[in-house]
Design goal:
Elements: E1 9-11, E2 17-19, E3 23-30, E4 37-45, H1 48-63, E5 72-78, E6 85-92, H2 99-109, H3 115-134, E7 137-138, E8 147-150, E9 155-158, E10 165-166, E11 171-173, H4 183-195, E12 199-201, H5 204-221, H6 234-243, H7 250-259, H8 270-282, E13 285-287, E14 294-296, E15 300-303, E16 306-309, H9 310-315, E17 324-326, H10 361-371, E18 376-379, E19 385-388, E20 394-397, E21 401-404, H11 417-432
Antiparallel strand pairs: 1-3, 2-3, 3-4, 4-6, 5-6, 7-10, 8-9, 11-12, 13-14, 15-16, 17-18, 18-19, 19-20, 20-21
Helix pairs in contact: 3-5, 3-8, 5-7, 7-8
């Protein structure tokens, strides 16, 4: 590491960032090399232990060389005034700014990244953090504002290691930005506001994984993650935010989901995350023709080269809102598919006819129409009694049109793919469920 002091650089008159007298960030130039721009971070140190720890951590960071970690050139402790000591950190300068500003800019334009772009950026951030973990260093303040952009917005670098720490114990002070804290740290932070105690036992790497997961969610949605700062109901809120991402992000959604596990004990650290990264990228997914959502292949029922997701099969309600009439006993069929003449028997939920175990609803309806034994009619909303059309297997009203036997909705007002699939294969599915 080089040995630089404030006298070795020329600071710009106005800081890039300033927070009272606690922290200021400047663009600067070396006196001996004016063509090279630097970034100088000036931090007020209130206690001697803080100064020693900061020096030690910066020295460790300077030795942690990685292509996606900002380069630290030097660190200097100014002790001219014992009561107002400052640490100066000399780093690379990035004129393209930080990820937070880029997200805001793209959000205004609704300019979403592709899944491939998101995975490229994800690797650029997971890889250096795994490298730091291998060297027993945690960042502890991961957020978009601490990720810098370079190479025409194609490369990300992790910055602002003012909160980083070489880990020798799991008992660590709470450092970080509240919105991007992991649940266990956020809870301790909230309690500390009442008790004044800023200590807890946690895994700092897994906390950093959660913070990076929130960063990825911020990138994918181009929306703030401030709504996830409240712990009650956090799991369902995270699930909703991830599910609301486009289907095109299927694999990236799996990555975010693996990082935003609320229970720290079940969450990856960076070493585990990087090991699983390629596998998550490579998972194949398919769109369900019923609900339109994407799932991995094991989430489907697959029969004769056709498939339907298990959620559609499980949650779809095949009982129509219109009244069903049994033509044999002239009574209304109730939601349990019973009428006066069924006795102890049952009706099929999908074709409404008497139960059939060994063949499909389509075969059953075809045979019933030929034998004129199909005994169900439906009352249309206009009052007409509708019978099964012999060609299309839909109830037909001359005034209102065709209505699906499965769900009761009009043929043109809904996606009937679930109905078609179940009428073809329900007799097989119920044997294994």
């Amino acid at each position: 590491m080089e040995r630089l002091t404030p006298d070795d650089v020329i600071l710009d008159p106005s800081p890039i960032y300033s927070r009272a007298d606690l922290c200021s960030i400047y663009k600067a130039k070396r006196r001996t090399m004016p063509s090279q721009d630097l970034c100088v971070k000036k931090m007020l140190i209130s206690q001697e232990n803080d100064a020693n720890n900061m020096l030690s951590e910066c020295i460790s960071m300077a030795s942690a060389r990685h292509s996606n970690i900002i380069r630290l050139y030097s660190v200097y402790l100014d002790e001219k005034d014992y009561y107002r000591r400052y640490i100066y950190i000399f780093m690379e300068y990035f004129p393209e700014g930080d990820l937070d500003k880029l997200i805001v800019e793209r959000s205004r334009k609704r300019d979403y990244w592709s899944q491939n772009e998101l995975f490229e950026f994800a690797y650029q951030l997971i890889s250096p953090l795994e490298f730091l973990q291998q060297n027993n260093i945690s960042h502890r303040d991961i957020k978009p504002a601490n990720i810098l952009i370079t190479n025409d917005r194609k490369t990300l670098k992790i910055a602002d290691f003012g909160s980083s720490r070489c880990i020798t114990t799991q008992t660590l002070s709470i450092i970080g930005t509240p919105i991007f804290l992991s649940p266990i740290v956020r809870k301790a932070y909230s309690e500390s506001l009442l008790t004044g105690v800023l200590k807890l036992i946690h895994n700092p790497y897994k906390s950093d994984v959660f913070s990076l997961g929130l960063t990825f969610l911020n990138m994918a949605s181009l929306r703030s993650v401030a709504d996830l700062a409240v712990i009650p109901g956090l799991e369902s809120k995270i699930e909703d935010r991830i599910n609301n991402l486009p289907n095109e992000y299927f694999n990236f959604k799996l990555l975010i989901k693996s990082m935003l596990v609320v229970d720290e004990n079940k969450r990856f650290d960076f070493i585990e995350l990087l090991k699983n990264f390629q596998a998550i990228c490579a998972i194949q997914y398919y769109d369900c023709s019923g609900c339109g959502n994407s799932f991995i292949i094991t989430d489907f029922y697959r029969i004769n080269n056709e498939r339907m997701c298990r959620i559609c099969v499980k949650t779809f309600d095949p009982f129509p809102s219109q009244k069903l009439i049994c033509e044999k006993c002239k009574t209304i069929i109730d939601p349990t598919m019973q009428c006066d003449c069924t006795g102890d028997g049952n009706r099929c939920s999908w074709c409404k006819d008497l139960d059939h175990m060994n063949y499909s609803c389509l075969d059953n309806m075809s045979q019933s129409v030929r034998n004129q034994s199909y005994s169900i009619s439906m009352v249309c909303s206009c009052g007409n009694l509708m019978n099964l059309h012999p060609d299309y297997f839909y109830f037909f009203c001359e005034s209102c049109g065709y209505f699906c036997v499965g769900c009761g909705k009009k043929s043109n007002e809904s996606n009937h793919e679930v109905c078609k699939f179940m009428q073809s294969y329900y007799y097989l599915i119920r044997r294994v469920t």
